[in-house]
Write a structure and sequence with these properties.
The complex is a heterodimer of chains A (about 290) and B (about 160). By secondary structure, chain A is an alpha+beta fold. Chain A has 12 helices and 14 strands. Chain A has a 5-stranded antiparallel β-sheet with strand order 4-5-10-6-7. Chain A has a 4-stranded antiparallel β-sheet with strand order 11-12-13-14, sandwiched between helices. The radius of gyration of chain A is 19 Å and the shape is globular. Chain B contains 5 helices and 5 strands, in the order ββαβββαααα. In chain B, α2 crosses α3 (about 105-115) and α2 packs across α5. Classes of the chains: A alpha+beta (about 290), B alpha+beta (about 160).
């Protein structure tokens, strides 16, 4: 199928984009990489009056170091995140998670901000943002606000973004050099939407876990922070960790659903197993399985 | 509904047109510019048949608007062979390894491989195979495509381009 007709505007500045969104009064849709929006337009599941293409806004692109963290422009392409040396060094789990987003061909157009703003519950980028404690800067003609990733998601494909707001920056706090990365997902085929997965980071200092950021994807209506498991891990020595007990607690925070790919029960069962195994592998601990 | 003037370079030749914003790059290439080597399978980014090279990168032409390609350099399967008809190394590998059956998915496969193996690039077999996950072959002729990939990765390792 072909998209329904729309007006097309390609602003060159954030200010111009925001005033267009404000004038459109909810009738506009933002086009970033288009790797999800274009299918929706082609299938006529989305029929905006105005398409605001933000691909020409230079200030929305690039990776930069800021005080206490790394800022990524939302229009940074997924392939650019994969190839970024600073990210590979400082936030390797984000790069690893990105390698599971779509396919080579879609990552050449798709953007990190598009993935964040879409809010697909089984997607890697929203969960990574929640796990790592990222914050999302959004702007409109009414002003700028910063939303913690954990508070950004309200439901499947539903965020707290107002129709006149644009995502203008993603800031990931620093994780110390040598932190431990956690990533595992279960998908039917590489590049397909994950059935479920787990992403995050852990910091060990003098034999104890001092910082933990973990989140699930595909385990509920939004990415879900594994808060109970994080609490259980913090302050523990590696010898004190029972991976099965932590996995049990981690599952208590989830709300998985049945769909035609997998039942909620399957997701809980597999989730528990991959959590325990991934934790053991990440921390290099052995215990009787 | 707005009409937009676009100019892009397709296979080394400049093309201009006036298009509705909703026209995809794929439809522009086929209907306006006549490059019917661009195959449209699913029109929602799943099958990979419409893959072309835009400014050096393999992308789905059904997931990009023609207006977005303004000023870009686009390459389709028609632009791969040399003017004297000599096949591109990717085309030759596909031919030698019998890597096509009905041929519908072939232009997309070829464009992804061409984007990843051109110039100084030396991809590994694993990298090429991973990129092949973005293409569906409904004949399930994947083994031939795998052999072509293996040949290309070997040729690249040997310093051939």
């Amino acid at each position: 199928m072909k998209p329904a007709p729309f007006d097309y505007i390609a602003p060159r500045t954030i200010a111009e984009a925001c005033s267009t969104l404000a004038e459109a009064g909810g009738g506009a849709t933002v086009l970033a990489g288009g790797q999800t929006l274009m299918p929706l337009l082609n299938l006529r599941m989305s029929q905006p009056f105005i398409l605001v293409d933000i691909n020409k806004i230079a200030e929305l692109k690039g990776v930069s170091r800021v005080a206490g963290g790394i800022r990524i422009g939302p229009m940074t392409r997924q392939c650019e995140v994969l190839a970024d040396e600073a990210l590979a060094r400082d936030l390797p789990v984000l790069v690893e998670a990105m390698s599971h987003v779509g396919h080579h061909q879609t990552r050449n157009r798709g953007t990190i901000g598009g993935s964040i703003a879409l809010g697909e519950p089984a997607a890697e980028m929203p969960a990574a943002a929640v796990a790592l404690g990222a914050s999302i800067e959004v702007r409109s003609i009414r002003g700028t606000r910063t939303v913690p990733a954990e508070q950004f998601y309200a439901g499947p494909y539903l965020t707290v973004l107002e129709p006149d707001e644009l995502v203008t920056g993603l800031t990931y706090p620093d994780w110390p050099q040598g932190h431990i990365t956690v990533f595992r997902e279960v998908a039917q085929r590489p590049g397909d939407f994950a059935l479920l997965g787990l992403v995050g980071a852990l910091v060990i200092d003098r034999g104890k876990i001092t910082r933990a950021g973990l989140a699930w994807f595909g385990m509920g209506p939004t990415p879900i922070k594994a808060r109970a498991a994080e609490q259980m891990l913090r302050g523990r020595t590696l010898a004190e960790i029972d991976s099965h007990a932590v996995a049990e607690r981690a599952i208590s925070d989830t709300a998985p659903f049945d769909d035609h790919h997998a039942s909620a029960e399957y997701r809980r069962t597999v989730g528990k197993r991959i959590f325990a195994r991934t934790l053991r592998e990440a921390l290099d601990i052995r215990e009787v399985a | 509904m707005s009409k937009h003037d676009v100019t892009m370079t397709i296979n080394g030749r400049r093309h201009s047109g006036s298009v509705e914003a909703r026209i995809s790059l794929a439809d522009f290439l086929r209907d306006e510019a006549g490059y019917t080597g661009v195959h449209l399978g699913c029109e929602h980014g799943v099958c990979g048949a419409c893959t072309v090279i835009v400014d050096g990168n393999a992308v789905r032409s059904c997931l990009m608007l023609a207006v977005q390609a303004e000023g870009s350099g686009v390459k389709t399967a028609e632009g791969l062979a040399a003017p004297d008809g000599a096949l591109h190394p990717v085309q030759q590998a596909m031919l030698d390894e019998h890597a096509l059956q009905c041929g519908f998915c072939t232009p997309g496969v070829v464009m992804t491989l061409a984007a990843l193996t051109g110039d100084e690039k030396k991809p590994t077999e694993e990298q090429l195979l991973a990129a092949m996950s973005g293409h569906l072959c409904r004949c399930t002729g994947y083994q031939g495509i795998r052999r072509a990939v293996r040949r290309l990765a070997g040729a690249e390792a040997g310093g051939n381009s």
